[in-house]
Structure prediction request, 323 residues.
Amino acid sequence: MRRRYLVDQDKDFVWLRIFTGNSNTELVQKITEQLRTPLGKSEVRTFSDGEINVEIDESVRGMDVFVVQSICNPVNNNLMELLILIDALKRASAERITAVLPYYGYARQDRKVVPRAPISAKLVADLITAAGASRILTVDLHAGQIQGFFNIPVDHLFAAPVLLEYLRHLEDDMVIVSPDAGGVERARAYAKRLNTSLAIIDKRRDTPNVAQVMNIIGDVSGHTAILVDDMVDTGGSLARAAYALVEKGAKRVYACCTHPVLSGQAVKVLSEAPIEEIIVTDTIPLSEEAKRGPKIRVLSLAGILADAIRRIHEDDSVSSLFV
Prediction:
């Protein structure tokens, strides 16, 4: 379906519609402004018994529809909003439905770590596909292999271009630090782009959301250490890593994470840690407490997401955004 030239005098896409639930309305507003197209007319509400109801208030027959929804807190409500939105649009005869997931919830449950455990990331993929999504657009999956959980096309974007642009304006004597062995590939990519050295924190995780720093591999003494991760949840790992880096002689510590989950006491934990600044993106809206936190700086991915949506709608290549 090529709609490249079907635009009106205001350069809005005639056959493009963008809808959203209640998970991240600020980001969606920025995306629609970038695309110069109005937000699709819909109502997503919750009944008194907790059931979610969706009404699409305009025709989408034959349209190329994008549903933007982060599967963030409250995770299950936002997931159900997404599924019901997709189902409503499918039954309204939308020609193609792309689920735009700035944050893919349940991504950390991507394998069996103990016997008789679920693989919830795969279950969520099956639910989204069964609801009627034709394509997935997402950002910084916790595990890239999750793309293989879908039997429909997946465009996996990275926040790196936006985050790297900001990091380039920091001090020159940086060292990129991976907070664990699993994030080495991501940290190496950042170090290569910034032409800096790399360090790795070896830690042992005894229970979920609790980590103990064991050792630092690499030289951080006298450098500005940049901790790079895909998300910050409870903040415990980043805080312990920051203390360990300072003990090893790092003169400053910054944290750079795409998804600001910030659950539990994360804001308090991070505010007390020796971290100069926590750089995140707007894939997840910040809580009021986090917004008041002086250390948190939010960079927007609206431009990248809008560009990807435009390219998908026009059947153009999205691969140039995969950096």
